[in-house]
Amino acid sequence: MTTTPRISHTASPTQHPGKRLRRAGLTLIECMILVTVISIISVAAGVGMQSVVKIPAQTDSIMAVNSVLVSVMEQAEASLDKSWPASTTFTPTILVGASSYAPTITINNTAYAYGTPPTYTSLTNALLINNNTYQLSMAVDQADPAGGTTYKSTFLQVTVAVTPYVNGSLATSGMQKVVTYVSKQ
Fold first, then answer.
1. Among 116, 108, 110, residue whose Cα is nearest residue 85
2. pLDDT over threshold 60, residue 85
3. Taking a C-beta distance cutoff of 8 angstroms, is the pair 120, 159 a contact?
């Protein structure tokens, strides 16, 4: 018995015109598209991360300014509780950081229209908070406990404000302030 050896060979595309051969891997065009998509996603992620990093710094500045405002407000209230002003001036001793201030603030006892800005007295023109310079100011006005226009010398509105400097000049916007009411005990 004679056997014929079998020869195995791979069919070429010309032998089977309706069938395509499977190939492994990516073409150059597919690789370029993949790299482009990955780079776009990377840039978007980088931009997003930058904005997330900036938020804590802005929040830190706002919190530092609010801390100063609340501290000054509490000192003004304590000063009023300790010694109510007998005249139309109020001279509290305010400690901010290591500096002490004793401004003479005129108490507005005329018809103060709610919603109009109070007349501020500057405590300092060079308050440095988180590497930014601010003006710290305070206003004290007689007020009506009922919210009307019958002003009482035994009821005061105290406003403490911080205004930033921009390019060496006092800004016209960006003022942060706190307002409280104090009544004579």
1. 108
2. yes
3. yes
